[in-house]
Amino acid sequence: MFIFIDNYWMFSKISNIYYIKRKNMNRQKTLYQPKISILIPLHNSAKYFNSTIKTILNQSYENLEILFHDDASNDETRKILEDLTIKDSRVKYIFSDTNIGSGYSRNKLIEASTGDFIFFIDDDDEFLSPKIIERCVKYLKPNLEILSTQFKYKFDDLGIKIPINNIVKTLKINPSPMHYYLNTTTFAWGHFFNKKFLYDIDVNFSKVKKYEDIAEMGNIFSKCKNFKRTLIYSIIYHRKTNSLTSFDKNYINKIECINQAYKFNLENIVSNLKNDVSFKILKKTVNSLFMEHLSLISVYYINLKNRNLKKEFKKFIKDIYPSILEIYNGFDVKIKYRRISDLPVFVTKFLYKIPKVKK
Length: 359
Known about the structure:
Pfam families: Glycos_transf_2 (PF00535)
InterPro entries: Glyco_trans_2-like, Nucleotide-diphossugar_trans
Shape: globular
CATH topology of the largest domain: Spore Coat Polysaccharide Biosynthesis Protein SpsA, Chain A
Number of domains: 2
Distance between the termini: 94 Å
Number of helices: 12
CATH class of the largest domain: Alpha Beta
Organism: Mycoplasmopsis fermentans (strain ATCC 19989 / NBRC 14854 / NCTC 10117 / PG18)
GO molecular function, one term: hexosyltransferase activity
Radius of gyration: 24 Å
Helix content: 40-55%
Protein name: Glycosyltransferase 2-like domain-containing protein
Structural class: alpha/beta
């Protein structure tokens, strides 16, 4: 009997010690509570960013900074921000008196932020739940440079909202930063960026007037050495599918801006990776970038609903395609369908059937 009691006492003692150690281990896992800066660039956003604001303010994570940049709006955006700063001490805003563009806006937000990690969200997108930041913080560590999350699309202009999962879920569990970057649609939003890391690599979103994500994200991911991704869905990206009814100078300028952004992106990636990977891997990386480039152009063509406009666009692409190939000179890029995101190119492959440029 005494032996039984002694054994029971000993077992209870060991169990309590194990429980305390386990409890302390779990506590240590969640001990890191970094300050998170949610950054939102705005320009004339008063009509449509109320739902965005609501999902941001409802975040349950406490160590949070919410920072807006008003890029010279001429609507009620500034007034809304002023009211928010009075109601919620976490909210701050900065502004520009003249319109400087979204790239410079992102730079200013990073500079003004005080968090350990920053998280961009656009003015018409939404967090999927109030606990998104709280859940994701569990994966952050002081030396982690990027934590990438999942997102969902919603095509609002179709009359219904259709959530579509980002295809990145099909990736392997622990992809490298470049493997992730080349196999998903990578925007500035949807990632936790270590602010010190961004400073160390001298990040700059203002290299181009438009499509600053394209121009800089390759630079960020190709310099990242400590990367993690999570299957947590963080935000809903509202995708506008408005058909285009004109092919004018502004349209042409957009295509030229796309080309310029990919040129900057390619230069960054090649410069960052040329000493770290074999030419074979670098060539494969560049070809993936080339297909992404064409895919974006193809989407513009698909959005043109008028037959005459499509014909005009086709001629325009035929004229400029040699200059697009020139951007990738030295890598012998080819049209290869390897990802779901290459589908627009497959549908519009006739756009790119022209004689090869003689070297």
